[in-house]
Specification:
- This protein is mainly alpha-helical.
- 71% of the residues lie in helices and 4% in strands.
């Protein structure tokens, strides 16, 4: 299943570059965030986050790569992050400690 997850993640990343009209490394961070926002819905993230705070477990629950989870979190604007933090009861993120 991991190879399927990696394939889907890479395909969505490539689709993001098509959207932006770029290739790596140009706008690569934007492509990662764009892809993550399409692979992970806010509802799915909240549901998974209520079950686990562990990055690898979150990725498993969401059926994405751990880097997709981190890119999703990085794509949240401050207001979105505060809403997520309130709903999950924590401001500590699984990727870099605190956000």
């Amino acid at each position: 299943m991991l190879s399927t997850i990696n394939t889907v993640s890479q395909a969505m990343h490539d689709r993001a570059h098509t959207f932006y009209g770029t290739t790596c490394p140009e706008r690569c961070d934007d492509a990662k965030k764009w892809a993550a926002r399409r692979l992970i819905t806010p509802r799915a993230f909240l549901t998974a986050r209520r079950v686990s705070r562990d990055l690898d477990h979150l990725a498993e629950l969401l059926e994405v790569t751990p880097s997709d989870v981190c890119n999703y979190i990085a794509s949240l604007d401050p207001d979105e992050w505060l809403i997520m933090a309130r709903l999950t009861g924590t401001t500590k993120g699984p990727c870099d400690g605190n956000r």
